[in-house]
Amino acid sequence: MRLLVSLLLLLLVRSAEPRRGQRSRAADKSPAGRVRGRRQFDITARQTQECKEYVEAGEKYLDCQDRQLTSVMQDWPKDIHHLLLASNKIQVLRDNMFSQFTQLKSLDLQQNDISLVEEGAFSGLSQLTTLLLQHNRLKTATEEILLPLPRLAYLRLYDNPWSCHCLLDSLVRLLQVPSNRNLGNYAKCAGPSSLRGQKLKQVNVDSLCDAGKPEKERPKPPPVKEKQQSMCHTYMFPKPLLDCSNKGLSRIPADLPSDIVRMNLSNNSIKHLRPKQFLLSKDLKLLNLSSNSLHHIDTAAFAGLLYLRELDLSNNDLHYFHYGVLEDLYFLRKLSLGGNPWMCDYNIHYLIYWLKHHPGVSYTGLICDEPQEFKGWRVEDYVKTYNGECPKDKQTEGTDTGQGGQGGSDNEVMGTDGEVSGQGANLPRPIQEKPNTFEIIRLS
Question: Where is the LRRCT domain (predicted)?
Answer without folding.
Answer: 160-210, 340-391
